[in-house]
TrEMBL record:
InterPro entries: F-box-like_dom_sf, F-box_dom, FBXL18_F-box, FBXL18_LRR, LRR_dom_sf. Residues 16-63 form the F-box domain. GO terms for biological process: SCF-dependent proteasomal ubiquitin-dependent protein catabolic process. This is FXL18 protein. Gene3D superfamilies: 1.20.1280.50, Ribonuclease Inhibitor. GO terms for cellular component: SCF ubiquitin ligase complex. It comes from Vidua chalybeata.
Length: 708
């Protein structure tokens, strides 16, 4: 939104439209889409009318810098100088590229009520100085890094913290952070990102340091949320936070959520906490580690008020228990808007004792769920085998089509296949290839419709998935992920060298199912992983043409594993993706060459690119040309099969050539199977690592609007 007064006049003469003749209300609405830094530092200098409008309270009340990758220290300084007193909410989350001294300028925002500094470099002393001046602050988000010392916080800073009612704290070191100072907490969000080993290889302890033993104040707490990264230290530290809760459960607690990967054993203290919750509180949101739910009668005793979020991810909860203990036999759950059953392999079966994970689902359980939770907006059924029976009208896709309010949906690949098309025994058709990385096998390709319209017409009347996509017209996020898919890049472990074969029921899912997705006109985020019957990727082209709002695209292990069969279609698709901002590709033997990057250059809005490819290759000159032509790209992560020397040279060339013009530039190019990969990963900014570099299902991962 950069223009001068002369440009405005020129536009008038050519189109006969005078922008300045629009009403103030319309102009304010238009200006609300412009980054605040551009409004204050550029647009308002074009003419007197815009100078006034750009400083309207509706535009300066809330300043969002969290994804303004062009902002730098000088722009922040000028912005705070010009409108600091008018800012009531400031979001600088993930501005990792700004030096810590930038935070000093926040002191000009005397009226701040809400401040998000997650991902910013803030020392104890700087935090103390800043918070001492923000007497109206009620909501705060910060990181607690190694070296944080609560004893350096001044009495004025602690006075401000005592009035804070909402705190989000990301921990990179064992610490209570500022929690003990926040005596009025109503909402507490904790993200545990502590590594088990230091950079030098020493094992870390989860015990808090001397002087960190102040007791947190939870008496007013309404929302408690904790998300743990893998590692035993994170588990040790979160137990210390929970210890106080187990002594006295807040009476007003209505949301209790703990997201913990792997095994997180229940202890006597946590059992006391859950028993106390069952006696004293009525919840609206619940998520617990699987070990706390599996085999216990906890859900039978917990009481719910008007629940809006449930997550039973990776639990062995059966469908019978789900209906009886959570959904109350199908009553009073119209308030539920978000449900995460990812990895809950028996959740659509009446019982789990003698059931195999691959057995057919009980459609009556899913029907009860759909009827009871008719206002669901976010539903995750991934990481499980949900196989429909041959009963007419009871296919999973047919039942889900009743959920007209869905905005995001995650399904396993094997759940979307038509029962008649599913394969009950290992396939013998020549187009299917063993999902291994071994010696390539020459095979024949069966005949398939080359014309996309003909292909779509063949499926439109009979495919239950096509009908589902047609009924969910307002869906914004879709994930179709193989039930046995695992990314080659786990969080804190070496790269996985082999993947499990896809489910037998998924063997027929391919190009026509992908083509069906093109009906989602408002689709913004799409994830496709482990679709074995992709032959050409022709459906991708239709998605590129029809889904013009697509911003995030993640493709992984499509078709045969020894060859990227969909490369031509992908390149055709990318030419139409003008709004695409994030692209993640994970595919063995991927060739990131000149043709690919030339097609990718059509994505003029692209900001982040991640490619993960065992035995993959790249052309350094093509990468450099792409970076030069796509001026918005600020993240380039490539984990390929190239040598360490090639990777380092290319990374250095990109940084040297573009860092000065792109302050937020983050480049990581590294061999995927190198033993030091985990050390490289730990230096990636959390924003990129969590949002794109690491593969995971994100539908209903957290309650909606948990933070801003």
């Amino acid at each position: 939104f950069f223009f001068s007064h002369q440009e405005v006049v020129s536009e008038e003469e050519s189109n006969g439209v005078n922008l300045m003749e629009f009403s103030d209300e319309i102009l304010l609405h238009i200006l609300s889409y412009v980054p605040c830094t551009d409004l204050v530092l550029n647009v308002r200098r074009t003419c007197r009318k815009l100078a006034t409008l750009c400083l309207d309270k509706s535009l300066t009340h809330t300043v969002l810098l969290q994804k303004d990758y062009k902002v730098n220290k000088d722009k922040v300084k000028q912005l705070m100088r010009d409108i600091g007193k008018e800012i009531y909410q400031l979001n600088m989350a993930g501005c990792y590229w700004l030096p810590s001294s930038t935070i000093d300028h926040v002191t000009r925002c005397k009226n701040l009520v809400k401040l998000n500094l997650s991902g910013c470099h803030v020392t104890s002393l700087r935090l103390s100085k800043m918070l001492s001046t923000l007497q109206h602050l009620r909501s705060l988000a910060i990181d607690v890094n190694p070296g944080f010392d609560a004893s350096q916080l001044s009495s004025e800073c602690k006075a401000t913290l005592s009035r804070v009612s909402e705190l989000k704290q990301t921990l990179y070191t064992p610490s209570y952070g500022v929690v003990p100072c926040c005596t009025s907490l109503e909402k507490l969000l904790l993200y545990f990102e502590i590594l088990d080993r230091s950079r030098e290889g020493f094992m870390l302890s989860g015990q808090l340091m001397v002087g960190e033993s102040n007791v947190p104040h939870y008496q007013n707490l309404r929302i408690f949320y904790a998300r743990l990264a893998p590692g035993y230290v994170n588990q040790e530290v979160v137990r210390l936070y929970l210890a106080v809760l187990s002594d006295r459960t807040p009476e007003n607690l209505h949301a209790f959520l703990i997201s913990a990967p792997g095994s997180f054993a229940e202890t006597g203290a946590t059992k006391n906490l859950l028993d106390s919750m069952a006696r004293n509180v009525r919840l609206d949101a619940l998520q617990l580690p699987k070990a706390w739910i599996n085999g216990s009668g906890l859900l039978q005793h917990l009481k719910f008020n008007n629940p809006f979020y449930f997550s039973f991810s990776r639990c062995t909860l059966s469908g019978g228990h789900l209906i009886q203990r959570v959904i109350n036999g199908g009553k009073d759950l119209k308030s539920l808007t978000s449900l995460n059953l990812s990895g809950c392999v028996h959740c659509l079966a009446p019982e789990s004792l003698f059931r195999k994970a691959e057995d057919d689902i009980d459609s009556s359980i899913l029907e009860s769920l759909v009827v009871s939770c008719c206002n669901l907006r976010h539903l995750n059924l991934s990481a499980a085998h949900h196989h429909s029976s041959e009963s007419i009208g009871n296919h999973l896709c047919q039942l889900l089509s009743r959920l007209k309010h869905l905005l995001s949906l995650a399904l396993p690949v094997c759940s979307i296949t038509d029962v008649g098309a599913s394969v009950e025994k290992p396939p013998t058709t020549p187009n299917l290839v063993p999902q291994t990385f071994g010696r390539k096998v020459r095979i024949g390709i069966q005949t398939y419709p080359r014309n996309l319209g003909d292909q779509a017409n063949q499926k439109i009347e009979s495919s239950v998935f096509w009908a589902l996509m047609g009924s969910l017209r307002f869906l914004e996020t879709l994930e179709i992920i193989g039930s046995s898919f695992s990314s080659a890049m786990p969080r804190n472990e070496p790269a996985i060298r082999n993947s499990l074969p896809p489910c037998v029921r998924a063997q027929s899912v391919g190009d026509s199912e992908v083509a069906a997705i093109s009906q989602l006109t408002y689709l913004q985020s799409l994830t496709l992983a482990q679709l074995p019957n992709i032959l050409t990727g022709s459906g991708l082209v239709n998605i590129g043409l029809q889904c013009q709002h697509l911003r995030t695209l993640s493709l992984a292990n499509l078709g045969m594993m020894g060859k990227v069969v969909y490369m031509s279609a992908l390149m055709d698709m990318l030419k139409h993706c003008k709004c695409l901002r994030d692209l993640r590709l994970e595919q063995p033997y991927f060739c990131a060459g000149a043709q690919f990057f030339q097609a990718l250059s059509h994505c003029s809005s692209l900001q982040r690119l991640c490619i993960v490819s065992r035995s993959g290759t790249l052309q350094s000159d093509a990468v450099m040309s792409f970076m030069a032509s796509c001026l918005e790209v600020i993240m380039c992560h490539m984990f390929m099969g190239e040598s360490l020397t090639v990777c380092k040279n290319l990374q250095q060339s990109i940084v040297r050539s573009f860092q000065a013009e792109r302050p937020a530039l983050n480049v990581v190019i590294f061999p995927l199977l190198h033993e030091d990969l985990t050390e490289v990963i730990r230096d990636v900014p959390m924003r990129h690592l969590d949002e794109i570099t690491l593969f995971k299902s994100r539908v209903a991962e957290e309650p909606p609007n948990l933070w801003w």
